[in-house]
Design goal:
The complex is a heterodimer of chains A (423) and B (258). By secondary structure, chain A is an alpha+beta fold. Chain A has 2 domains: 168 residues, no CATH class; 214 residues, no CATH class. Chain A contains 12 helices and 14 strands. In chain A, the strands form 3 sheets. Chain A has a 6-stranded mixed β-barrel. In chain A, strands 2-12 form a two-stranded antiparallel sheet. Chain B has a 6-stranded mixed β-sheet. Chain B has a 4-stranded antiparallel β-sheet with strand order 2-1-4-5, sandwiched between helices. In chain B, α5 packs parallel to α7 and α7 runs parallel beside α8. In chain B, β7, α8 and β8 form a beta-alpha-beta unit. The chains are: A alpha+beta (423), B alpha/beta (258). Chains A and B meet through α1 and α10 of A and α3, α4 and α5 of B. The structure holds adenosine-5'-triphosphate and magnesium ion. The site of adenosine-5'-triphosphate has 12 residues of chain B, from β1, β2 and α3.
Chain lengths: 423, 258
C-alpha cells in the first residue's frame, strides 16, 4: 500500500528539498553546538580523565587544573609515607611563552602563550594519550617536548626534531598527541619535570642592551639582536637540574594501594600535608569542568546556541508541516468525510513528520561528522559527536518534528468534513 | 407517497437501532417482508448561524428513499441540496428533525459512531472528484480500502477489480493529473465502491464533465446501482440523469416540492 505521507512529501521535489535543507540546518546547528560543548567540556579535563591517579592533591586554593598555587616538592616525599599510598608522582603546571626561531614566519605569528605540563615520563600516573608520533620516553632527554597535532602548525613544529624556544631555552619536538588540547586554554606543551623546571626558571625577560649613540640612549632587546635563544643553534644549554625539595610543583598524583578506601586516604593526605586539598580523579575533573562551564559562561553560550537551534528547527518544521497540511486539507477532509478516524489522519501527518526528521537527520549528522573532522584537523576544535550525542540529537529531531506535527494536527482537527462538497 | 411505503416507514421506525442491517440477513426471499427504506427523514431543519445572523437553509424535510433506487435531488442553486445531502450522509448535524439510514437513527449517534457508520455504509462521489493528487488511480482506491479496514494483502487485488469495474484497468498506474475529467470521476466511483457500501451519495457528479464523459459516468452509476441493489442519492442539475433515475424530488428554498 502506498504511503500518502511519503507521496505527499515527494510530490513536489524542489519544495521538499528546500524544506529538508531547513531541517538539515537545524540538525547541524544543534549537533555542532552540543558537539562543541561536549568536546569543550571533555577537553578541559581530559588530562585528568586520562591520568591513572586515584587522587589528585593540590593547593587548598586550587580553582581548576590550570589555576592553582604551588606546593613544595617536599610534600610529595611526605605523601609517599602516608599509609595507603602505593605511588605518588609530581605534576607541574606552569605557563610560559613559545617562540619560533623561523624567520620566514611573519612576526605576528612567532610567539604563542603556552601551558607547560611537567611530569615524569617514566612514571605511571600521568601521560597524554594517544601518542601519535615519537614516544613518551623520548622526553627523558633534556629540553624535549610533546605537543598536540593540532598545535603543530601554530607552534611551527612541522616534524619531529623541529625546535622552538620556551622562554629563552630551546625545545625540541620528540612526539605528538591527538585530541588532548583544551580549546579553552593556551597551547599545551608536555615535557619532563626537569625541563619544566628549567623553562620556569629561565624567565621570559630578555636581556636588554643599551648604549649611547649620538647623545641618545639606544636599547635593543636580546631577541632582536640574536634572534636565537640558548641551545637553538650551537650554544649548548646547561643540563637541567633535578628537582629539589623546595622546588614548587602543582599536584601530587597518588595511586592508592589495592582496596584502599579513597575517602579515608583523602582525609589522611590532607592531614599529613597542611595547606592542601585532595580530590578523587572524578572530583578533580568535575571541579575543572564546572569552572569552564559555569564560571566562564562558555557552557551557557553554547547551550544557548543549541537551544536556538532546536527552536529554529521547530519553527522550520512546523511551518513546512503546517503548509503541507494546509495544501492537503481537502484530502484530509475527504478522508474524514469517508469516515476515517482522526487517527488515520494524525498517522499520515506524524509519518510525514518522521520522514522529515529522518531525512533531515541523516545528512545533517553526516555534514557535522565531516565538519568535525575538518575543524579538528585545521582548527584543533573538537566537535565531539559520540553515539550518545548522535542519539540525543536524533531524539531532539524526532520530538521537534512530532511537536510540529501536533501543531499542524490542530488544523485538521478543526476541519469541517462538509468542505468536501464545496467545489 | 404511497400507503404501503408509509407502512414500511413505520416499520423501520420501530426497528431497534442495533438491528442487523439488511445485508447481514440471509433470507433474500423474504426481502419484501423486511423491505425498509434506505433513508427516512422527518422534520429535518437546518439553521446556519453566522455571527448574529441566522439563515434557515432547510425547513422541515420529510423524505423517504427506497432501497435500490436511484434517487435524484434537484433544485435551483442555493435551495439547500448540498446541505441536505451532507445531513443525510451524517457529515452535518441538523438543528432539528431525525434521519434514519438503513434502519439506524443517525441523529443520535456520536461523532465517532457516525464516522464508523459512514465508513461502513456510505460511498461518496464529489463534483471535484477529491482524488489524492500524489497517489495513482490504483493507490487512491487502495487507500479507501485500507481505511475501510481491508487487510493489506487483499487490497491490491480488490482495487484492480474495482478499477476494472469502471473500465480503467489500463490507467491504474496513472496519477490523477494525467487522467481526463471523466476518468477521474470513474476512479472516484471505484473508490466510492470500495468496501461495498450500501449507500452512494453523490453531489453533482457530472457537473464538471463534458456531455460525453457525463454520459459515461451516468451510465456507469446506473449499472452499478442496478446490478448490486445499492441505493444512490444524487444531487444534480443535469437533466440527462433523469432518464436513469427511479425517483426525483425537487428542493426549493429549503422545502421539498412533490
Ligand atoms: N456553512 C454555512 N453557513 C452559512 N450558510 C450556509 C452554509 N452552508 C450553506 N449555507 C447557505 O445555505 C443555502 C443552501 O446552500 P447549499 O450549498 O445547500 O445550496 P445548493 O442547493 O447546494 O446550491 P448549489 O446548487 O449552488 O450547489 C445557501 O443559501 C447557502 O448560502
Ligand atoms: Mg451544492
Amino acid at each position: 500500500m502506498a504511503s500518502i505521507a511519503r507521496k505527499n512529501l515527494f510530490e513536489d521535489i524542489p519544495r521538499f528539498l528546500v524544506a529538508q535543507a531547513g531541517i538539515v540546518f537545524a540538525v547541524s546547528l544543534v549537533t555542532i553546538q552540543v558537539g562543541i560543548l561536549r568536546g569543550f567540556t571533555r577537553g578541559t579535563a581530559l588530562l585528568i580523565d586520562q591520568s591513572k591517579a586515584d587522587i589528585w592533591v593540590g593547593s587548598a586554593d586550587m580553582v581548576q587544573m590550570e589555576l592553582t598555587s604551588p606546593l613544595p616538592l617536599e610534600q610529595l616525599l611526605q605523601a609517599r609515607k602516608v599509609p595507603g599510598v602505593a605511588l605518588a608522582e609530581a605534576l607541574v603546571v606552569s605557563s610560559s611563552r613559545w617562540r619560533t626561531p623561523d624567520k620566514t614566519v611573519p612576526p605576528t605569528k612567532r610567539i604563542t602563550p603556552v601551558r607547560i605540563f611537567g611530569f615524569n615520563p617514566k612514571g605511571q600516573l600521568f601521560a597524554p594519550e594517544p601518542i601519535t608520533q615519537g614516544s613518551l620516553s623520548a622526553l627523558t632527554e633534556p629540553y624535549t617536548v610533546i605537543v598536540d597535532e593540532s598545535n603543530q602548525q601554530s607552534l611551527n613544529l612541522k616534524q619531529l626534531g623541529a625546535v622552538g624556544t620556551i622562554a629563552s631555552l630551546k625545545a625540541k619536538l620528540v612526539g605528538t598527541t591527538q585530541g588532548t588540547q583544551s580549546i579553552a586554554s593556551s597551547t599545551y606543551i608536555f615535557t619532563s619535570l626537569e625541563s619544566a623546571k628549567a623553562y620556569a626558571q629561565s624567565g621570559i625577560s630578555p636581556e636588554v642592551n643599551c648604549r649611547l649613540q649620538d647623545g641618545n640612549i639606544r636599547c635593543n632587546s636580546n631577541y632582536d639582536i640574536t634572534s636565537t635563544a640558548i641551545g637553538v643553534d650551537n650554544l649548548t644549554p646547561p643540563v637541567p637540574e633535578k628537582l629539589s625539595a623546595t622546588d614548587p610543583i602543582s599536584y601530587i598524583l597518588v595511586k592508592a594501594t589495592p582496596n584502599q578506601n579513597l575517602k579515608t586516604l583523602k582525609q589522611a593526605l590532607e592531614k599529613a600535608l597542611p595547606g592542601t586539598r585532595a580530590f578523587t580523579r572524578l572530583e578533580m575533573a568535575q571541579q575543572t569542568r564546572d569552572f569552564w562551564q559555569k564560571r566562564t559562561g562558555v557552557g551557557f553560550v553554547l547551550g544557548l546556541g543549541a537551544t536556538v537551534g532546536v527552536i529554529v528547527g521547530m519553527v522550520i518544521v512546523s511551518q513546512i508541516l503546517y503548509s503541507s497540511v494546509s495544501d492537503h486539507l481537502k484530502e484530509f477532509g475527504t478522508l474524514k468525510a469517508m469516515g476515517a478516524s482522526d487517527w488515520v489522519i494524525y498517522g499520515v501527518i506524524l509519518e510525514q513528520a518522521l520522514w522529515m526528521a529522518v531525512l533531515g537527520y541523516i545528512p545533517g549528522i553526516l555534514l557535522c561528522l565531516g565538519l568535525g573532522s575538518w575543524t579538528l584537523a585545521t582548527q584543533g576544535i573538537i566537535i565531539l559527536i559520540t553515539p550518545l550525542t548522535a542519539g540525543g540529537v536524533l531524539l531532539v529531531t524526532v520530538s521537534m518534528c512530532i511537536g510540529s506535527a501536533l501543531f499542524a494536527i490542530q488544523k485538521v482537527t478543526h476541519v469541517d468534513p462538509a468542505i468536501v462538497f464545496k467545489a | 407517497m404511497t400507503a404501503s411505503s408509509l407502512d414500511l416507514t413505520r416499520l423501520s421506525e420501530h426497528l431497534p437501532t442495533e438491528a442487523p442491517l439488511l445485508a447481514e440477513r440471509t433470507f433474500p426471499l423474504d426481502i419484501g417482508r423486511y423491505h425498509t427504506d434506505a433513508i427516512v427523514t422527518r422534520g429535518v431543519e437546518m439553521v446556519f448561524q453566522n455571527g448574529s445572523e441566522q439563515f434557515q437553509a432547510l425547513k422541515g424535510i420529510d423524505l423517504d428513499v427506497h432501497i435500490g433506487d436511484i434517487q435524484l435531488l434537484m433544485g435551483p442553486s442555493g435551495s439547500g441540496k448540498t446541505t441536505l445531502l451532507s445531513i443525510l450522509a451524517g457529515i452535518l448535524t441538523p438543528t432539528a428533525g431525525s434521519v434514519n439510514l438503513l434502519g439506524r437513527e443517525i441523529t443520535s449517534m456520536s461523532r465517532e459512531q457516525l464516522a464508523k457508520f459512514r465508513l461502513k455504509n456510505i460511498g461518496f462521489i464529489f463534483q471535484g472528484f477529491n482524488l489524492f493528487p500524489a497517489l495513482t488511480a490504483q493507490e487512491n482506491v487502495e487507500l479507501a480500502l485500507r481505511v475501510k479496514g481491508m487487510p493489506a494483502k487483499a487490497v491490491r487485488q480488490e482495487a484492480r477489480f474495482l478499477l476494472d469495474q469502471v473500465g480503467l484497468s489500463a490507467q491504474a498506474k496513472q496519477l490523477p493529473r494525467d487522467l481526463s475529467g471523466g476518468q477521474k470521476q470513474r476512479v472516484a466511483i471505484a473508490r466510492a465502491l470500495a468496501g461495498n457500501p450500501r449507500l452512494i451519495m453523490a453531489d453533482e457528479p457530472t457537473a464538471a464533465l463534458d456531455s460525453q464523459n457525463g454520459h459515461a459516468v451516468i451510465e456507469l452509476l446506473r449499472r452499478l446501482a442496478k446490478e448490486s441493489g445499492r441505493t444512490v442519492l444524487m444531487v444534480t442539475h443535469d437533466p440527462r440523469i433523469m432518464d436513469v433515475a427511479d425517483r426525483v424530488v425537487y428542493l426549493e428554498d429549503g422545502m421539498l416540492k412533490a
